[in-house]
Amino acid sequence: MALAVLATAMLVAALAAVASGVWLLRRRNRVHPRRASGAPIAWLASPVPAARAHRQLRGAVRLTLADGGLPPSLSTPAGDLHQQAVRLDGELVRAARLPRTERRRRVHALRAEVLVVERTAVRLVGLARQPLVASGADGDALADLVERVELIASARDELAAPPTGLAARGRRDEADAPRAPSATG
Fold first, then answer.
1. At what angle do helices 49-65 and 100-129 cross, to 10 degrees?
2. Residue, of 18 and 49, whose pLDDT is higher
3. CA 64, CA 115: separation in Å to the nearest integer?
């Protein structure tokens, strides 16, 4: 009787260890720590293109979450990036289930988007690490800040202004061009 209880306890402990190990691997395999992924656990080390793309997405998201994440000014683009990474991961999982020729074509197409996510993550982290004002004397830093704000305002004004230059002249030239006489007149 005691032997049966001991064997049952050992079996339960072994099953609990396996279950917690699988749970930990599934959590580690997520693209975003708070979003479940349908990616197989084997993708943690698999050399297939879909698995490599999955790991690239996971790395891109983890990069933006490292060291407490990005500053609040970049939280919206970072959140959008995370959503795109999770979306692409789901598409990779679905593509991996397709027949070989379709799978290759679809995964290849998705890899281009994965590279964009990766580059964007690196760019966001780079922006987060750039100081808002230049280091140096306080007067120089303030002058630099004012200059950058003026450049942004100038760019916005330029975008809001009516078209000028060749594009506007082309439209005026078309309006001023003689028209063929109409059949009625």
1. 20
2. 49
3. 15
Please give the pLDDT value at position 142.
67
Cβ contact 63:55 at 8 Å: no
Q: Has this prediction a pTM greater than 0.85?
A: no
| Pair 81, 67: CB distance under 8 Å | no
- Tokens encoding 19: 């279950």
First to last CA, the chain: 112
DSSP, res 130: S
For residue 168, give Cα distances in angstroms to 88, 161, 162.
Answer: 41, 12, 9
Measured distance CA(128)–CA(141) in Å, rounded = 18
Contact 60, 85 (CB under 8 A): yes
pLDDT in tens, 56-80: 999 999 999 887 778 887 888 888 9
